[in-house]
Design the sequence.
């Protein structure tokens, strides 16, 4: 019962923040809404019992990636957006398309997905550690190469003239 | 603790992934050596990278020897997350060969572009590590990480010519669309994991087959999203929009590398997913594959006819080639899969050869990737012009050349399975494709050169040209001898197809 | 499981309440008398010359990206640390391999001068 109530609260906060993200005209306001989205997602993970993922969500997404977002906004010096003329195509085709997709997904998920009680999974750092360092040892090591590539990519694409 | 270590990683496990370990070590070596080299002496980076390929080849050969010695269909390691079966080994060889040829092409080219940095070769080796993970992964986590490793290194390589606006634009487009498609692909994989509760592709296949009727809509969603991601990676219509821009803007050597090694890796991943995870879902994916194959053949061939940029033209032609390979998937029998693998092998040589010729057109003040730039090549460098004719005719599928054998097996598989309409459509598009290949040949042989600047291909480039040309002609003229000489070329596909379709 | 987090939820509620309460109280008790000079940004008494929202240098961006990347790396250290005893020397070697590859990258960006400011 408490689970369901908490789930509904955070789900509503999450969706509301996401809609606010789209509605805001200043990019910084949108970025701040995104933090709320990330935070409530983290709480939803927590409700599922995925403690580690919830922590990662806060540290990486609400922390590091949001820093990148805000830096980019400041870098571009993006100001208030101007409202473009509302496109008729978007209203005539876009809105029904969204409705159809949402309906189809809702139908598919409601029919197909098995149910699992909230808080059933065990996803603390201990369990993750056991999986990551034993069963998924090789993917873990390859991940370090992936991170190295990311470092190189950032430096290569943004490097200065040397000559 | 000893038993624990022995259970999860031992010498045997290390031997199986040794090719990847070697490549990683040498790529890190290139990065460090690059810091020590003086500015004008960067060729040692290429040499180190090439040495890394040799060592990787050596360790791959050891894996293959173990496999042959024990008469097994595959050795798995690291708790079953990686498996070196004949298909994986076949693809790994393909990646190593393609990378070797690309390095030969690159050395002088990157000097002309004044971007001869060590990162270039290191990124190439890292991307091969990713490709090998894609070819040998048996676990969707490893497959996905391999895919990202390859994709991210390729994004960076595409944008490597920082002074060139086209290169930057291409990298950005490729990155945005690529990340989007990776997301869709990951969504599909996560649905499959949710339905089956495992990350092992074999188990996924088995458990998906046993799902109750009520789960079928969500299974459909999983298959559709996974397929969309895969089709993007092999650049099939309608998921191909990134390819022409990325191919045109990338450094020409990298265009060749992407179109050959990157494509082969995407196919390795696709075959792995189809043959294991989606093995019993044929009724869901077959109509989609047929539709995409027809669209890809049509879109690729028709768009290629109107191109005036050589790299763009070859980009659309490579989309068209994917269409033929998809037909092998439609047939879905031993001949069809063998056809795809042979196609990828011969495509590696002929396409890299064609790109090597385009690279030779790049001179100090000339970008040299328009059809006008290749005009009159016959009067300047008859040998290179002749080799280009060979590559183009082979791409078109003219009989005595290697390209014919790729198409031959595909058509054979279509006829075996009774897809006569598709077969005749494919034959029609061969005629169309000859039109645009002959347009390039016409420009080379019949039109006068537009500029007087001489063309002097470097030694590495000439070597690459001869290797690819010899392979193109050799496979074409002596397919049987070639097969016997390089036994793995055909035993790998045969063993694989038997394992798949048993 | 969520029961264990009730103190944290309470903590968050208190944290949320403090700024809200202080702002409301401040609003209620302070004199409210704004005018143009008072609303101007204060820069040592000199009139500001330009807008404060100047464009940042791209250098910050590289730093931000490197921060994200190394942040992702540290995430892997947490599950390793809590399982350190169970994993033993094997886990230690595993993590050292992981870190060694990243140290190569670190040395490389350092020597490449990507961390230098000017």
Sequence:
């Amino acid at each position: 019962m408490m689970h369901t109530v908490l789930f509904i609260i955070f789900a509503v906060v999450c969706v509301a923040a996401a809609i606010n993200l789209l509605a805001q005209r200043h990019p910084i306001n949108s970025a701040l809404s995104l933090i709320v989205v990330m935070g409530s997602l983290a709480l939803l993970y927590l409700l599922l019992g995925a403690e580690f993922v919830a922590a990662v969500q806060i540290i990486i997404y609400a922390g590091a990636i949001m820093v990148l977002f805000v830096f980019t906004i400041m870098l571009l010096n993006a100001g208030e957006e101007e409202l473009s003329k509302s496109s008729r195509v978007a209203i005539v085709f876009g809105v029904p398309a969204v409705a159809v997709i949402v309906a189809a997904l809702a139908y598919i998920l409601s029919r197909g997905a098995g149910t699992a009680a909230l808080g059933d999974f065990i996803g603390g750092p201990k369990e993750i550690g056991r999986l990551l360092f034993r069963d998924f040892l090789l993917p873990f090591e390859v991940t370090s190469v992936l991170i190295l590539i990311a470092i190189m990519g950032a430096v290569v694409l943004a490097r200065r003239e040397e000559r | 603790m000893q038993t624990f270590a022995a259970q999860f990683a031992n010498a045997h496990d290390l031997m199986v992934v040794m090719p990847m370990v070697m490549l990683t070590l040498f790529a890190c070596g290139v990065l460090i050596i690059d810091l020590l080299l003086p500015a004008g002496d960067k060729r040692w980076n290429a040499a180190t990278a090439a040495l890394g390929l040799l060592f990787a080849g050596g360790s791959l050969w050891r894996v293959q020897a173990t496999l042959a010695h024990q008469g097994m269909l595959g050795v798995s390691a690291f708790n079953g997350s990686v498996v070196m079966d004949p298909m994986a080994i076949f693809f790994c060889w393909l990646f190593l060969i393609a990378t070797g040829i690309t390095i030969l092409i690159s050395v002088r080219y990157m000097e002309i572009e004044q971007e001869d940095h060590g990162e270039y070769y290191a990124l190439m080796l890292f991307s091969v590590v990713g490709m090998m993970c894609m070819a040998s992964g048996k676990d969707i986590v490893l497959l996905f990480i391999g895919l990202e490793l390859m994709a991210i290194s390729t994004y960076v390589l595409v944008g490597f010519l920082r002074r060139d606006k086209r290169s930057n634009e291409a990298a950005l487009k490729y990155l945005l669309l690529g990340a989007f498609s990776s997301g869709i692909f990951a969504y599909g994989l996560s649905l499959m994991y949710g339905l089956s509760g495992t990350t092992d592709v074999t188990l996924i296949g088995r458990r998906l087959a046993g799902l109750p009727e009520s789960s079928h809509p969500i299974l459909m969603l999983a298959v559709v999203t996974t397929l969309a991601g895969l089709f993007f990676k092999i650049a099939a219509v309608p998921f191909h929009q990134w390819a022409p821009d990325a191919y045109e803007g990338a450094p020409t050597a990298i265009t060749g590398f992407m179109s050959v090694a990157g494509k082969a890796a995407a196919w390795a991943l696709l075959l792995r997913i189809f043959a294991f995870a989606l093995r019993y879902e044929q009724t869901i994916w077959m109509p989609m594959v047929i539709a995409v194959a027809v669209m890809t053949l049509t879109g690729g061939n028709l768009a290629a006819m109107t191109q005036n940029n050589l790299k763009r033209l070859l980009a659309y032609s490579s989309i068209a080639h994917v269409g033929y390979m998809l037909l092998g998937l439609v047939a879905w029998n031993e001949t069809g899969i063998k056809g795809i693998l042979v196609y990828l092998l011969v495509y590696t040589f002929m396409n890299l050869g064609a790109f090597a010729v385009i690279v030779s057109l790049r001179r100090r003040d000339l970008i040299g990737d328009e059809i006008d730039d290749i005009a009159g090549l016959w009067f300047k460098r008859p040998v290179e012009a002749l080799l280009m004719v060979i590559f183009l005719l082979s791409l078109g599928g003219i009989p005595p050349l290697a390209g014919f054998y790729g198409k031959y097996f595909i058509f054979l598989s279509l006829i075996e399975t009774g897809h006569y309409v598709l077969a005749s459509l494919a034959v029609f598009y061969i005629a169309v494709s000859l039109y645009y290949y002959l347009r390039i040949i016409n420009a080379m042989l019949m039109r006068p050169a537009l500029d007087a600047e001489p063309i002097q291909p470097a030694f590495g480039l000439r070597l690459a040209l001869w290797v690819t040309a010899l392979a193109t002609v050799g496979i074409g003229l002596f397919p049987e001898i070639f097969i016997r000489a390089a036994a793995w070329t055909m035993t790998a596909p045969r063993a694989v197809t038997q394992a798949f379709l048993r | 499981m969520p029961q264990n987090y009730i103190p944290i939820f309470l903590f968050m509620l208190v944290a949320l309440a403090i700024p809200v309460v202080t702002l409301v109280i401040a609003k209620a008790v302070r004199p409210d008398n704004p005018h143009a000079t008072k609303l101007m940004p204060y820069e040592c008494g000199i009139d500001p010359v330009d807008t404060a929202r100047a464009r940042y240098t791209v250098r910050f961006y590289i730093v931000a990206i490197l921060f994200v990347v190394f942040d992702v790396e540290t995430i892997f250290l947490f599950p390793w640390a809590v399982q350190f005893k169970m994993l033993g020397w094997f886990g230690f070697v595993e993590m050292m391999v992981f870190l060694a590859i990243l140290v190569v990258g670190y040395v490389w960006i350092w020597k490449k001068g990507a961390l230098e400011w000017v």
